[in-house]
Write the structure tokens for this entry.
Amino acid sequence: MAIVKIYPNIEILSEAAAELFAEKTRQAVKDRGRCNVSLAGGGTPRRLYELLAKKPYSREIPWDKVHIYWGDERYVPANNSLSNQFMARQSLLDHISIPEVNIHPITYEISPRKAAEEYEKVLQITFGDRPQFDVVLLGLGDNGHTASLFPATDVLNIQDHWVSEVYVAEQNLYRVTLTAPILNQATTIIFLVAGSTKAQVIKEVLEGSQDNKRLPALLIKPVNGELYWLLDQQAAALLTP
């Protein structure tokens, strides 16, 4: 069952997300000596990353034992402003004491398919045959997509790969994304959703539709983990009290 929490604004939402992120990462390191995190792109997580880059989190989180991965990436070079890696480095990774070897980006290979294949190999080295991120951060698009699981795309049907390329026609852009099966193995999944433009889709995802082809966020159902929805008041405005 999902845990839904609503906050007055994105600042307080981000502060709560930082506390939750710190709690889950420290617990993973305590239990296993390492924490595997999948970051989200988009605008909403940026403030969270900025908070994590500062005290107390920059010191309290054992960053030397945290390994960073990405849930998806636009198929662009790492220094492109559209890159999720670029945003995460600017807002977080360049400001904390994390070894470069702990950062595992989706790389700009010779083709989107090759990039997906290579990232799956990276994850296989990490997880063997039992993939389980400790923390997965996700956003939600106005159209119900999460990571790069877009409505009516073939990637929604993939069960036998952890990573896939996907062409998003409305953006005229390839992306590389983790698939629903590997995301659903995570110990903790945290959706961060803010803004009035998300109110209708939040209502549908949390209270209405079961059509996961139209609203791919509905595919995210942890097998044995926790699922959090952290919303601001604007995103939650249409939910039933």
About this structure: The mean pLDDT is 97.
